[in-house]
Fold these 2 entries.
Entry 1:
Amino acid sequence: MIKTYLKKLWRWRILIVIALAIMTSIGTTVALANSQQVVVQANVLNIRKGPGLAYDVSAQVKQGQRLTVISKRNEWLQVRISNNQVGWVASWLVKNTEVSATSNQIATVDNNNTPIYLTNSETSTKMGLLQATKTVTILYTNGEWYQIKHNDSVAWVKRNAVHVTGTVDSSAQTEPTSTTQTTSVASTTQNVLVKTNNTHLRSEPNSKASIVTSLSANTTLSYIKTVNQWYEVKTSGGQTGYVASWIVTLQNKTASSGTTTAPKVASNLAESTIVIDPGHGGTDSGALSQGNKYEKTYTLQMANVIASRLRAAGANVILTRNGDSYVSLSGRASVSNKNSADAFISLHFDSSENEGSASGVTTYYYNKNRDSKLASSLNTQLSSLPINNRGTDFGDFEVLRDNSRPSVLLELGFINNKNDFSYIQSTTYQTEVASAIVNGLTAYFK
Ligand SMILES: [Zn+2]
């Protein structure tokens, strides 16, 4: 059961969100300075034209193929497949193999109006003109040509038009899209999201430094800069310190929030990011069973079973809580927004006024355009459960209202109904629900 908070949405709040979204939509991409390679883990991996499922597939690569990483945005990697072919892949479908010791070189443009090209040929499309003293990051050398980083993509410049002036030695740097990059640039438009509980904030950028504090999963930190493989960050309480970059996620602030249009969806489950929201937690116990057992206990059990099934199917799964902790309703929605979830699924168990007077499973949606396809795909599969299916319905829930991504809230049986509760507690039922959700999402992403 979930309480509906009929909080009025303030117009100015929406405007600020939209303004922030526009301000940050220019975006910054993390340029991986060291030439890093990844190996494809999936049988067939889609290469997309941009960092997300909304972008078209431009090519496919097979398991075992090595790709060179150019940059990273959210959880997507920009990779070079061949000399002229560049695209984006989901980082959770590839495996990091090596970070070579060599660094990318920086070159300075010699003359005004130096042309840059789409491919390593003067007959290919001109991408623009660079002015003297402008610096560029060299990604790749091929004959008389350098492949360079250009905005969110790459371009080619003649080697004799520039001269090498230095190297980038940090492994992850932010590079504003339109300005010159030389050394590490602090970005105020990025956040660091903590992925696991008990992540240490340390006083220095190494694992032997003293611990400033321990952070819980889903804590958001302000990114300051990168030092070696560590991010210097600031907590919401104003503490500064360092976290290891490989255990957290760097992301753009307010990325993809503020939109109510239906985002394009993944073409397959393995490429999707799914946020599972185990209802209640901590001081919020949720509804009670007849034997005074808590709803929050079973939403977390159910979430873990679903998460492991989805992960086995290759999806990138994020839980809004991993333990018995309190997470605000808006905080749950923001996990979905910040991670650009392809689907957000909130898990609950219903409760009726009088014990045992109601039974069944309900799928709630909030925004018909955005959510109803997801709701009906899941609901169709939930019909196979041994508990009566009450169908889909509109639900004014804050976790759905504050969400900018396709989202549903599932009431997976009445916890104060003896028969429903016997199912809710059983691992068989939990597994059946997980299968229904995997099947429902598979159908949804087709
Ligand atoms: Zn609930």
Entry 2:
Amino acid sequence: MIVDLPDLAAMAAFGRRIAGKVRPGDVVALTGDLGTGKTTLARAIIAASGHEGEVPSPTFTILETYDHLDLPLVHADFYRLESPAEVEELGLDDYRDGAVLLAEWPDHAGGFAHEADCLSIALERAENGRRAIVEGGQGWLGRMP
Ligand SMILES: Nc1ncnc2c1ncn2[C@@H]1O[C@H](COP(=O)(O)OP(=O)(O)O)[C@@H](O)[C@H]1O
Ligand SMILES: [Mg+2]
């Protein structure tokens, strides 16, 4: 599935659609080069899930948690991981319990596409805006955003 995202308003709307579909245990895997909008889309999902206020980029902290929401979220940026083994040291599984994981640079954490509940979103530049190539695992059948 291809979604055109010509501007930030389209990004916000797509974030709302995703926020309306996610369930505990899901992963939203955000791939794409630097500057393609991974953090922008994660912020849109977090805001649409009811978070008010700032959404710091997890570039340095790797994980930011939003567990005050009805559906808790974990926003991760795995860019700085040197090996997928470091994911265990972060205690990611504990953070993910009952939550939705929004993952930037998922490949640096070993990737999540093997999980049935993984929604893979590949962002790329398209003219002045962006385009998303969206693929869902078995768990996304019938609820694609
Ligand atoms: N759909 C879009 N159209 C135009 N600009 C966008 C879009 N999505 C994001 N941007 C802009 O791209 C820049 C980089 O976005 P960011 O989310 O930080 O990228 P990434 O996390 O992939 O490195 C930001 O200035 C943001 O405003
Ligand atoms: Mg980013």
